[in-house]
Recover the amino acids of this structure.
């Protein structure tokens, strides 16, 4: 990853939200794409139950479900990487990429649950709805 990393328009902290309310910091997908072309790596919040080392959680009566790990998707001009926020594990994603809406809906209203085909692997990712267009465009460009 390059040394210049910034959060995308849809990946916001509390201070980003407050600055935006006062009109101090207004980011957009267009600015994200321009910065990406200029060499900036964009950081997009991305949780996934299938990326990285999959941990199974017990839900009782002998049943288990995959733990949804939170992390960030790092979008650079030459590569796409997912990093687990808790463990620091990096997963390099290789194309061709195909992104489609998941059959299951996200439980959070401002998040989108998507199915990601990266090479031969199938993954489920949850990203901010505001970043869906950005991630789609970057993955389409990287898959060529």
């Amino acid at each position: 990853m390059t040394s210049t990393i910034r959060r995308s328009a849809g990946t916001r902290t509390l201070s980003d939200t407050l600055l935006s309310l006062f009109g101090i910091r207004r980011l957009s997908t267009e600015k994200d794409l321009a910065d990406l072309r200029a060499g900036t790596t964009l950081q997009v919040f991305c949780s996934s139950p299938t990326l990285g080392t999959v941990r199974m959680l017990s839900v009782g009566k002998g049943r288990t479900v995959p733990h949804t790990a939170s992390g960030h998707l790092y979008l650079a001009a030459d590569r796409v990487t997912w990093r687990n926020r808790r463990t620091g594990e990096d997963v390099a994603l290789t194309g061709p990429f195909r992104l489609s809406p998941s059959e299951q809906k996200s439980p959070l209203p401002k998040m989108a649950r998507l199915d990601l085909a990266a090479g031969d692997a199938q993954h489920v990712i949850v990203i901010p709805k505001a970043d869906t267009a950005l991630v789609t465009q970057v993955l389409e460009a990287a898959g060529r």
Q: What stands out?
A: Helices lie at 14-21, 29-37, 132-142. The chain has a mean pLDDT of 83.
